[in-house]
Fold this protein.
Amino acid sequence: MPTVRDILAVKGSQVLSIGPHATVLDAAMVMNEHKIGSLVVMDEGYLIGIITERDILQRVVVPRRDPGQTAIPEVMTTEVVCCQPHTPLEEAKGVLKNRRIRHLPVVDEMKRLCGMISIGDLNAHDAHDHELTIHILEEYIHGRV
């Protein structure tokens, strides 16, 4: 059964983060530069929140707050849903679907951040598996197996 660890083995464990003293504008600039939809908020090595595109839209843009004057802790999500490397991919998919979130930080047994997966990562993994199955079936049909 594939696990989150399988995705991290391909994707890597690098996670971009931002500190609690940064502004929403700072976060948006980092997300835009790296073409990502979220940043984990770290304070002295601890995961204290996550700031996402949705957080920025709902809590900054719509209320017309100044992103250059709004601190990350004022608008970040503090109840961060996480998974572990041994979490089955089906379980991770269920969490993302049921909670209506797109990013899932991965923490180890000591609650240390060791990666991040997204719905896009899960979809890419599924697509790769489907392509492999199609290839095997085509080889079988054409008698090359």
Summary: DSSP finds six helices and five strands in the chain. The mean pLDDT is 93. The domain at 4-141 is CATH 3.10.580.10 (CBS-domain). Strands lie at 17-18, 38-43, 46-52, 103-107, 113-118.
